[in-house]
Amino acid sequence: MLRIFCLIRNGRCWFRDVVVFIFAGFVLSGCGGLMSAQYIENTMDRPGYYGYISENESEFDQTKTLSMEPAFLDKGPVFIGIRWNSAMDSEEYILVVERQDAVNFDPEEPLQFNVDGLMYDLKPIDGRSFGYMGKKLLGGGTSFMDPVVDVGNKTQKEFWVTEDFLHKVANGQKTIVRAHYLQHKFTESRVDPTGDSLVIYEKYPYAHFKGAIPKFIRMRDEMMGY
Question: Who contacts 107 (Cβ-Cβ below 8 Å, separation ≥6)?
Fold first, then answer.
């Protein structure tokens, strides 16, 4: 973690380089059998990191909240997270799509999925929003060994999603997601892990969107006593 911090402080890398650095180490060590699933979990299961899930209960009105940091996909420039709170319908969730730069999403276009050849459109929560722009922060800031690191800009946009659809993605064989931006531009990302990302997925699936879905739903059920 300190090496990542120093690289960023010296201006040599930003968000993409952090991702490459982390996963290059994981893949090389994973192939050699030197890096355990526990080591990967200790590295990735921290505030701000990909797929990290935090839970909270409001002291004001006892609303329970569950939030998953946008997690890795296999290919493409986007990351996807999930949010939920107990004031929502039981089958309703929020999907958070994140880009690792400052962009303008098309405010009215849906987030589109192709799951095993079937097409789905997810409606944006705010049809007037171009996306929320801010800083991508990694780390909890609780100690010198876990500093808060600013790794560059991020842009997020939220979409409605159902639990049934999340199960479709988690159980699908091939899922492609298409995100739309201004000037009729779009990007496509493969959700399911392949190649090098599959090496990490098999050791620690929860930093990956597909692998984190069942964990998120299970934690939601536990919070609600289901």
Answer: 124, 126, 127, 128, 129, 130
Task: State residue 201 phi and psi, 5-degree precision.
Answer: -55, -40
pLDDT (tens digit, 9 = 90+) per residue, 4-51?
333 333 333 333 444 444 554 454 444 434 567 888 888 888 888 899
Q: From residue 196, how far is each of 14, 31, 117, 157 by CA, in Å?
A: 21, 9, 24, 28
pTM: predicted TM-score of the whole model, two decimal places: 0.83
| Burial class for 127, CB neighbours closer than 10 Å (0-12, 13-18, 19+) | exposed
Give which of 1, 79, 5 is closest to 44, Cα–Cα. Answer: 1
- Taking alpha carbons only, the member of 199, 161, 174, 193 closest to residue 73 is 193
Residue type for 216, please? F
CA 189 to chain CA mean position, Å: 13
Cα–Cα dist 97/124, whole Å: 10
Buried b / exposed e along 173-190 (16+ C-beta atoms within 10 A): eebbbbbbbeeeeeeebb
Tokens of 88: 């929502």
Tens-digit pLDDT profile for residues 155-179: 999 999 999 999 999 999 999 999 9
The DSSP symbol for 110 reads P
